[in-house]
Specification:
Chain lengths: 181, 225
């Protein structure tokens, strides 16, 4: 992780100065991760590619806004990507059928998971997720990976809205305590 | 209802990053983020924490045509134009010291420190990181886009204990170069406790006294994450 961090900071700095070759390297290094994320959240290649295009235009123009408090450059780019995908989902989901959501979740569940949890951060997060109850864990994962709102989660899972809100809130409370242990 | 409690803000920040804070509540929270550095830091905390989840998502290489589209749009908008770019220069004139050190807690693995020394224009000048090799710890210093000082002088990096004399970590390298210094157990302990380093301008070859003699240009202070 550490070598990537310094390489990425350099690429980000050079991109902010208008160096296209560095930006292309940054794109090459990060686009599979961001495209995978958008595909997972949007469940649709066409939309994922449109959003990815907008994300990189934003990165090109705003690379100078990156700073290390936002984590690694990849963390910053992932955050931009998630918020962009959420915007698309918010516009779309008013019209999306619950059955479509369920199908999307089913097809994603068939995907092979990457085996190794490489970093200590990943191991720590994984440990805390495992300590959560099934409901709390599922609600956090549905929101994070698929951008489901409380209401969509309640409809998809067939549980009352208040129950789902409580799962998310308690799950996050526990996560914070666990991660800081 | 403006959140005024640290825990309440943290809970909102977590739901903002997760995406379950929606509609008007989300927009209100975005306004608070603009107003409050503390709220922004709480959001960044969760962005960093949740980043670890992404390792579970399979990577997928986008079609090659996508890069051509991105490139085409940049070409049309003018590749050289960068309203938010890191401007060049101003290194030695920088009186405002801005440096950020990032620390990732990594239990049970050895603590791993990463820092980026930036000047007042937020240019990254050097990247600092600790490494473990064969049971020994090192501090790596990598020059990013630092201009060479005038008059053959040198930039020297100092580890600052909470009290007591500064400890030299050696001369900082030029842009594109890397320098590595072995960390003794005592130095590592100082780093853990103070999390502070400084850069001074010294004669060629470094300070003749073993303590900073020139102006301290940058002080790197760890941000508590």
């Amino acid at each position: 992780m550490s070598e990537k961090f310094s390489d990425m900071v350099q690429l980000m700095a050079q991109t902010s100065r208008g160096d296209l070759a560095s930006f292309e390297r940054l794109y090459s290094a990060t686009s599979p991760r961001l495209y995978g994320l958008c595909l997972r959240m949007l469940g649709n290649q066409h939309e994922a590619q449109d959003v990815l295009q907008e994300i990189y235009i934003k990165v090109w123009h705003h690379a100078g806004e990156y700073h290390p408090e936002r984590g690694s450059p990849l963390t910053w780019m992932v955050s931009i990507s998630r918020y962009a995908c959420m915007d698309v989902l918010r516009q779309r989901r008013g019209h999306q059928d619950v059955d479509d959501l369920k199908n999307q979740l089913r097809s994603a569940a068939m995907e092979p998971q990457q085996a190794a949890l490489a970093s200590a951060d990943e191991k720590s997060l994984d440990r805390c997720l495992r300590e959560l109850s099934d409901e709390h864990r599922a609600s956090i994962q549905l929101a994070y990976f698929y951008g489901l709102t409380h209401d969509q989660m309640a409809r998809t899972l067939g549980r009352p809205l208040g129950t789902v809100k409580s799962w998310v809130r308690r799950g996050l409370d526990f996560m914070r305590q666990c991660l800081e242990r | 209802m403006k959140p005024d409690r640290y825990d309440r803000n943290h809970a909102l920040a977590a739901e903002y990053v997760l995406g379950t804070l929606t509609g008007a509540a989300r927009r209100r929270f975005e306004t608070w983020m603009l107003e409050s550095p503390r709220v922004r830091r709480q959001v960044w905390y969760w962005e960093r924490r949740f980043q670890a989840l992404n390792g579970a998502i399979p990577e997928r290489r986008p079609p090659a045509a996508l890069w051509r589209k991105v490139r085409g749009r940049i070409d049309r908008s003018g590749a050289g134009f960068h309203a938010w770019g890191w401007p060049l220069g101003g290194l030695l004139a920088a009186s405002l010291v801005i440096a950020v050190m990032v620390f990732w807690p990594a239990p049970p693995a050895p603590q791993h420190f990463v820092g980026v020394i930036q000047n007042s224009q937020a240019e990254p000048l050097w990247v600092l990181e600790t490494r473990s090799e064969d049971g020994r710890r090192y501090l790596s210093m990598q020059g990013v886009q630092v201009d060479a000082p005038a008059d053959r002088r040198a930039f020297e990096l100092w580890l600052l204990p909470r009290s007591g004399a500064a400890i030299s970590m050696g001369l900082l390298p030029a842009a594109g170069k890397e320098q590595t210094a072995a960390l003794t157990d005592e130095q590592l302990q100082v780093l853990r406790r103070s999390r502070t380093l400084a850069v001074s301008l010294e004669p060629a070859g470094g300070s003749p006294t073993g303590q900073p003699t020139g102006p301290v240009l940058y002080q790197v202070r760890m941000v508590t994450l």
